[in-house]
Amino acid sequence: MNDRMHWLERFFFPRMTRRFVLRLLGLIVVSFLVFGYALIPLCLNGKSMEPTLRDGSIRFCWVPSYWMADPAVGDVVAVRFGGKRHYLAKRIVAKEGEVVSFLNGMLYIDGVPKTEPYVVLPCDWNLEPRVVDPGHYYVIGDNRSVSIEEHVFGQVSRGRITGRIIP
Amino acid sequence: MATELDTKRFGWQGRSEWVSCVMDLRFERPIGAIRSLLWIVMVFLLAGCGGPEREIIRTLDRLAEELSKEGQESVVSLVGKGQRIGDFLGETCEVELPEWMMTGPQRRQDLVQMALGVRGGFARFQVAFSEVEVELLPSGDALVYAVVRVSGDSEDLSRALNRGEVSMVMRPNQGRWEIVRLEPVEAIRK
């Protein structure tokens, strides 16, 4: 019992030895680098990606996923929006040069209807065809039950795509 | 005696303050380490106090304060507010706001009138500029990038997406920085 108390006491009230302080500083630096630049924690606010990503849930954005490779169609990504610490969670549906359009809720890429198993909620969107600019990706949320005017989507530059969101 | 020993052990004599600080951080002399760190912090603070970048950031802070609305405003205060907002704008300011049907050079008074009109639609809101980046151009102007955030008590203003990036060109005029070009940076386009 005494040993246990001693262990608890040492855990919660450690002695400020030089070794402990150095370890603590190392941990702070590593955490800052990892969670600031590689594995960014995101608190989701909004329903535009439901049911894939729930409103209020916490996810992580893995930044190194696009250090060596380009984003791919179907990836759920974090898009930098309004500053360095504010992101949009969206899914990539088209790459540069492709033509995107909606007809009665069905997504068309280059005129071909696209099957999207992740879109569960009903959608009745209509959107004129538009070509994705060079160096850009077209991103849309999975929840298309809201009106097209209210949903924030469209083409974003490659530089704004920060990383892939870990599902 | 102690100083002599220290000198022999660490060879501090003749070293710069930086080296001394690094040596102090080995926790051999905590008071010395704190003193050195304070020196470094003071140098950084002094370096950050002046310069056009600081002036521009302060100008934007004041502009945000003027643009914000704390509550009901009388006609007199509205006139004063319009005048103060106008002080931050050049005589003509090039504005790129296609959604507002505004592109090209605009007169200062028109922009002030528009700003006051927009303010009238809301009871209370706060404007804040953050992440300000300043690039000084050879012409003497400054290219400024900033994140503008509008928050308030109405439903429209409390949305998470009520923020955006703006790109501005600011020009010094009689000791003040004036906005001569304003363009929102489009993050996402339908």
Low-confidence stretches of chain B: 1-14
Low-confidence stretches of chain A: none
Strand order of the largest sheet of chain A: 1-2-11-3-4-9-10
Question: What is the CATH C level class of the largest domain in chain A, in words?
Answer: Mainly Beta
Q: Count of helical segments of chain A?
A: 2
| Derived structural class of chain A | alpha+beta
- Please report which band the strand proportion of chain A falls in: under 5%, 5-15%, 15-25%, 25-35%, 35-45% or over 45%: 25-35%
As a whole number of angstroms, the C-alpha radius of gyration of chain A is: 22 Å
Question: So, CATH architecture of the largest domain in chain A?
Answer: Ribbon
Q: Level of helix content of chain B? A: 40-55%
Number of DSSP helical runs of chain B: 6
CATH third-tier fold name of the largest domain in chain B: Nuclear Transport Factor 2, Chain: A
DSSP strand tally of chain B = 6
- Encode the helix/strand succession of chain B as letters: HHHHHEEHEEEE
Mean pLDDT of chain A: 92
Q: What number of domains of chain A? A: 2
Assembly state (oligomeric):
heterodimer
Give helix and strand order of chain A, one letter per element, not per position. HHEEEEEEEEEEE
Look at the structure and name the CATH superfamily of the largest domain in chain A.
Umud Fragment, subunit A
Number of domains of chain B: 2
